[in-house]
TrEMBL record:
It comes from Neotamlana sedimentorum. One of its GO terms (cellular component) is cytosol. Residues 21-158 form the CMP/dCMP-type deaminase domain. This is Cytidine deaminase. Substrate binds at N62, Q63, E64, N65, A66, S67, Y68. Zn(2+) binds at C73, C112, C115. The keyword Transferase does not apply. It holds the Pfam family dCMP_cyt_deam_1. The keyword Disulfide bond does not apply. It is an enzyme of class 3 (hydrolase).
């Protein structure tokens, strides 16, 4: 038996204003998208904004359903739209803003496991890393230089 460790490097910004200007603007778009989420059941709103290499910005938010599992997270709403509309474009950055309507969310909210798997698919497809930034309503912003940092030991097409 051998023990191994896996290291993930993340970067923490103290607040939204500490982000580089262009990412700051992208995060504001994610906030805008978050405010339009359809989440009457959880009251938890999430917005995602993607910057593509063709200059397009794609927005997504969570879409819930009375049949709960039929809903979709913000990140996948955005990334599937990008994949559908701009299949040749590379995704450079994803900004995520999330929070509950019931309380102020001051901790960064990372994408769920299913979204990480979905984002991984596009990172592998485009062969270049996607920078990911995530935050709550306020407070610190976490940056990952690549989805890979957020999903060690990911399942990928090599296994098929
Ligand atoms: N949600 C997202 O949109 N993204 C995530 O990464 C985590 C969860 C949504 C799904 C559901 O509408 C609500 O947040 C509560 O789970």
């Amino acid at each position: 038996m051998k023990e191994i460790s896996i290291e993930s490097k993340l970067f923490i910004f103290d607040n939204l204003e500490a982000l580089p200007e262009q990412v700051y603007k992208l995060m504001l778009k994610a906030v805008e998208a978050r405010k339009k989420a359809y989440a009457p059941y959880s009251q938890f709103h999430v917005g995602a904004a993607l910057l593509l290499d063709n200059g397009e910005i794609i927005l997504g938010n969570n879409q819930e359903n009375a049949s709960y599992p039929s809903g979709l997270c913000a990140e996948r709403t955005a990334i599937y739209y990008a994949g559908a509309q701009f299949p040749e474009a590379k995704i450079l950055q994803m900004a995520i803003s999330a929070g509950s309507l019931k309380k102020e969310t001051t901790v960064p909210i990372p994408p769920c496991g299913a979204c990480r798997q979905a984002i991984a698919e596009y990172e592998i497809k485009q062969k270049t890393p996607i920078e990911i930034y995530f935050m709550g309503h306020f407070g610190k912003v976490v940056k990952s230089n690549s989805l890979e940092n957020l999903l060690p030991l990911m399942f990928n097409k090599e296994a098929l």
